[in-house]
Amino acid sequence: MKYIVQFEIIIAISLIGELLNRIIPLPIPASIYGMVILFTALCTGVIKLSAVRETGKFLIYIMPMMFIPATVGLLESWSVMQEFLTAIIVISLVSTVLVMAFTGHITQFIIKLKNKEDKK
Description:
Blueprint: H1 2-23, H2 30-44, H3 53-61, H4 63-66, H5 68-76, H6 78-81, H7 85-119
Helix pairs in contact: 1-2, 1-3
């Protein structure tokens, strides 16, 4: 029963994200709205982490299975993709390196801020 309630909380927040996506005319996916709402609710204490912890762990555990339909879709459209394969590889490599670099810099910045706070 606990898992059902936790899943309902996550689904309700996802629904709110979907509604915001329909109402606000910005090119932001509904899932991003939902994640921001959940993050804010967890940070402010509106939702306790224990209220969604187990279901969140389960969803992360099964996340690799969610990539199966996308992979099958890529395999189905292989003949169309072959024409653009070089561009797809270059874009994938460049975007991966940029995301890794950006994430690393942000992480280092946060660690430095935390170390400064600890020294005070």
